[in-house]
Amino acid sequence: MAVAILLSALAMSAIVAMRYVLSSGGFALITHVREPGLYRGLDRQIRREIGWSIASALIYGVPAGIVAWGWQARGWTRIYSDVQAWPLWYLPLSVLLYLLAHDAWFYWTHRWMHQPRLFRVAHAVHHASRPPTAWAAMSFHPWEALTGAVVIPALTLLIPIHVAALATVLTIMTVMGVTNHMGWEMFPRWLVQGPAGRWLITASHHQRHHDLYACNYGLYFRIWDRLCGTDGGLGKCGRARA
Q1: Which has fewest Cβ within 10 Å: 91, 140, 196, 201?
Q2: Nearest to 130 by CA among 210, 43, 241
Q3: What number of other Cβ atoms are within 10 A of residue 191's Cβ?
Q4: pLDDT > 70? residue 212
Q5: What is the pTM of this model?
């Protein structure tokens, strides 16, 4: 059993690392084409971001591997593959539930890590990316990576979710994690500055966190920032598309 769990953890670590390389590399390439020269002079920082991110991928893979093994071998999780096991309307609802729960966890752990001592010990690694690049999405100290690695696996033990819906959650998490750190706004102006932009986090919102530190702690939604008075609005983040 121990060998099976170890192999599952190693496999998931490799998958997370590959997902990081492909997603961050892809958006870094888009940045090179869309905003040439934006990352000029940041080669040393980018190498550091990649190193920390690969280490984070190894950490993320451990609980993910345990969950994957538990799902297949023991039925520990609430992940299901039969689309008829739950009503079809539950598929989008489950995605929303996961995103809301993950966002709440991220907001409070992120804000907690801005306490001076915790910031120096762990979160300073992420904020060393000034300005952040597409490679910075997983650039975490191991302690911070651990807080992020446990939340989705824990949710699979509590909230039923179809395997395709779980893949959707992971895709949204990856895309928003990378695009929020690119240093420019890839989403259209009508979305960022319109009604949806008042509640969704994009690069314009998260860039302000990297600039000012004491605001804009959320991951997907601005809900907790608005409720707790930590919403610092939108910053200047490149050029939004028309």
Answers
A1: 196
A2: 210
A3: 15
A4: yes
A5: 0.92
